Automatic annotation (TrEMBL), chain A:
Family: Belongs to the binding-protein-dependent transport system permease family. CysTW subfamily.
NCBIfam families named among the record's database cross-references: 3a0107s02c (TIGR00974)
Alphabetically ordered keywords of this record: Cell membrane, Membrane, Transmembrane, Transmembrane helix, Transport
Membrane topology summary: Multi-pass membrane protein
Any one of the GO BP annotations: phosphate ion transmembrane transport
Family matches, as SUPFAM superfamilies: MetI-like
Protein name per the record: Phosphate transport system permease protein PstA
Organism of this sequence: Weissella minor
Transmembrane segments: 12-34, 67-87, 107-125, 132-150, 262-281
Keyword rRNA processing: no
Domain ABC transmembrane type-1: 62-281
UniProtKB/TrEMBL annotation, chain B:
Gene3D superfamilies hit by this protein: P-loop containing nucleotide triphosphate hydrolases
Residue span(s) of domain ABC transporter: 6-247
One Gene Ontology term from the biological process aspect of the record: phosphate ion transmembrane transport
Alphabetized Pfam families for the sequence: ABC_tran
Phylogenetic classification of the source organism: Bacteria, Bacillati, Bacillota, Bacilli, Lactobacillales
Annotated protein name in UniProt: ABC-type phosphate transport system, ATPase component
Domain of life: Bacteria
Classification via CDD domains: ABC_PstB_phosphate_transporter
UniProt GO cellular component terms: membrane
Record PANTHER family: ABC TRANSPORTER I FAMILY MEMBER 17 (PTHR43423)
Record-linked InterPro entries: AAA+_ATPase (IPR003593), ABC_transporter-like_ATP-bd (IPR003439), ABC_transporter-like_CS (IPR017871), P-loop_NTPase (IPR027417), PstB-like (IPR005670)
Keywords (A to Z) from UniProt: ATP-binding, Nucleotide-binding, Phosphate transport, Transport
Amino acid sequence: MNAKNADKIATGVLYAIAGIVILILAALLGYILIQGVPHLSWHFLTAPASAFTAGGGIGIQLFNSLYLLLITMLLSFPIALGAGIYLNEYANPKSKITGMVRMTIEILSSLPSVVVGLFGFLLFVVQFNLGFSILSGAIALTFFNLPLLTRSIEDALATVPDLQREAGSALGLSRWETVGHIILPAALPSIVTGVVLSAGRVFGEAAALIYTAGQSAPALNFGDWNPFNISSPLNIMRPAETLAVHIWKINSEGIMPDAQEVSAGASAVLIIVVLIFNFSARYLSSYLYKRLTSTK
Amino acid sequence: MTEKILTTENVRLYYGDNEALHGINLDYDQYGITALIGPSGSGKSTYLRALNRMHDLQDNVTVNGNFMFKGRDIYAPDTDTVALRKEIGMVFQQPNPFPFSIYDNVAFGLRISGEKNKSVLDEKVETSLKQAAVWDEVKDDLHKSALSLSGGQQQRVSIARALATAPEILLLDEPTAALDPVSSHKVENTLMALRDQYTMIIVTHSMSQASRLSDRTAFFMSGDLIEVDSTKQMFLNPTEQKTQDYISGRFG
Ligand SMILES: Nc1ncnc2c1ncn2[C@@H]1O[C@H](COP(=O)(O)OP(=O)(O)OP(=O)(O)O)[C@@H](O)[C@H]1O
Ligand SMILES: [Mg+2]
């Protein structure tokens, strides 16, 4: 067999593999969307769930998911940003501390999310007495999210060429100023991509939440924005079943007559939101890049 | 004899334990262009970067010697490196505009040092771009990304950026090495036009560039300064055999 034929065969095989991957993804998405989209309605998206009768919605779970995502990001982004900047801009790659930080992050990222959830349960829910709450859930999700987010921020910073750092100091900037005024702005489009993609991952996470944010979704009063009231949507000490947990729960113990439909609809919503995150990550990043490189 | 703006005495520089410069003595009059030539690895960049303390950014580099800029010790413990690098600007081999607009690039140094007045910024940006001979090519679209320019334009914008903070000395490390002949020519013209207002030290591998541009040429080899003289003298009648060999292209 000559090189040309070998090349042809290799190309063909690679195309086939790529095709299969796309096919699997398309089938999966298609199945979930075809099953679920017919059940979507404004009512379904906004009404509270009902445990025993048909016609319940996912309004509270959807809100819980988004709110929990927000709190998680508020907790994890500053830490991940700091860690990413430290690792890429300050840390001496040969030092023991850097090595340890990296190893910690790697181990953390390889922990199964169930374990993270259980840890969150034992430590925050029980030990620190935070109960099943948005806060406990957000902390668990922060553990879950931190390693990947840190890694993606670090990678974003690493793509900024060293020439830029030299140019900054040649203009008389301290290292910190170089990071703040040049490196971070330059890396912003990819940092945002990383954040939005990780948001998609966090949004769909269930296992880490079952024992931390809890499996119940008490009724919320959307007229009450005092975060200290128990029925306020903003209260972070209330239990908050999320969309992903809800899907898991309906499928394991749902007794409403339309459990099938609710589950399919909720799954479709989940997938759609995650897809929105993915697409907006791309869009945002190119938009920011344009904004950054020109001032109008 | 005129006052020297910059003197360097007995410069020894170590990368770890490895001595890369073995005692360089060189000083500079105000204004004019000094070219540093020599084979690859001879220590030209190393020497140049010692002048505005760029080595500070790296661990493991030890700089010894006496550096005086306008009577002040560059390596004195209380030297403000930020202020120093504003007075001794630098242009690199690779054009390296920041990923911002042309305007923001040139205004960058001024903004960092606290200049907010729009009309001052506008004026400085315009003069710097004119000095760098790139104004006519970019004036209609100052707000587009500097990255969208050609390499030659980017390099001239980088020069403008360095000029905007009004340095007294400009260090240039092979500023035209990455450019096509037309762009190099424009950058050379830029430097020619600046020679009466700035003290410039330029590293170059091009003998013809050194002879066209510089008033004075210094020849480096293996971490030593072999010879320094007026450019004319160096190219027509060098004292050292090594210089003669290098200039006539016998090695390096
Ligand atoms: N960061 C560094 N760490 C260790 N050694 C270095 C470093 N930079 C340069 N050197 C060494 O110092 C010597 C001088 O290098 P330098 O870059 O100053 O040469 P140069 O004259 O600028 O060469 P070129 O013309 O190729 O740019 C070389 O032997 C080089 O290997
Ligand atoms: Mg060099």
